[in-house]
């Protein structure tokens, strides 16, 4: 199943509600992207699957700090 390597976000179950208010189950998928990001502390690129929300936060605080917040070791990726 597709999930974010950093936060673990994955698909959620939701209801599709018709005009007549009949509810049927459906999936809500996150916007996951596979990216190749440079880690200056390691001096190399790391290929990870992240959500677009993760990418915005990585741009703001940096990949190493964001991985540390979520307890992910970048050397293992």
Walkthrough of the structure:
It contains two helices and four strands. With 77 residues, it is α+β, with helices and mostly antiparallel strands. The strands form two sheets. The protein has a two-stranded antiparallel ribbon with strand order 1-2. It has a two-stranded antiparallel sheet with strand order 3-4. The two termini are 18 Å apart. The chain has one domain: Ribosomal Protein L24e, Chain: T (Roll).
Structure described in brief:
This protein has 77 residues and is an alpha+beta fold.
Jot down its keywords:
77 residues, alpha+beta, Ribosomal Protein L24e, Chain: T, two-stranded antiparallel ribbon, 2 helices, 36% strand
The total count of helices amounts to 2
- The Cα radius of gyration reads 16 Å
- Assigned CATH class: Mainly Beta
Largest sheet: 2 strands, antiparallel
Average pLDDT, rounded to a whole number, is 96
**Helix- and strand-based class?**
alpha+beta
Q: How many structural domains?
A: 1
Poorly predicted parts:
none
CATH topology: Ribosomal Protein L24e, Chain: T
Oligomer: single chain
What percentage of amino acids are in beta strands?
35-45%
Q: How would the global form be characterised?
A: elongated
Question: If classified by CATH, what would the architecture be?
Answer: Roll
Strand adjacency order, main sheet:
1-2
Per CATH, the superfamily is Ribosomal protein L28/L24
Order of helices and strands: EEEEHH
């Amino acid at each position: 199943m597709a999930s974010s390597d950093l936060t673990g976000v994955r698909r959620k179950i939701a209801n599709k509600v018709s005009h007549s208010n009949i509810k049927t189950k459906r999936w809500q998928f996150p916007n996951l992207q596979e990216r190749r990001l440079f880690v200056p502390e390691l001096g190399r690129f790391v290929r990870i699957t992240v959500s677009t929300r993760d990418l915005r936060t990585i741009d703001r605080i940096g990949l190493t700090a964001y991985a540390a917040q979520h307890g992910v070791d970048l050397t293992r990726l």
